[in-house]
């Protein structure tokens, strides 16, 4: 039987980001981060106010 992790790696990626970063002058809002979201999976982004959730989404969406 295949584990969920193995099954996820076999699915094509619907979103893949590598080395995302965003700085505003000397302030780093988003440190380099990478992730892959496979087709058919649902993920959420949670964090406190000012944690960089919107900055992350804006970096992914351009």
From TrEMBL:
SUPFAM superfamilies tied to this protein: P-loop containing nucleoside triphosphate hydrolases
Domain ABC transporter: start-end pairs: 30-62
One Gene Ontology molecular-function label: ATP binding
Keywords in alphabetical order: ATP-binding, Nucleotide-binding, Transport
Span of the signal peptide: none
Gene3D superfamilies named in the record: P-loop containing nucleotide triphosphate hydrolases
The protein's name: ABC transporter domain-containing protein
Protein species of origin: Iodidimonas nitroreducens
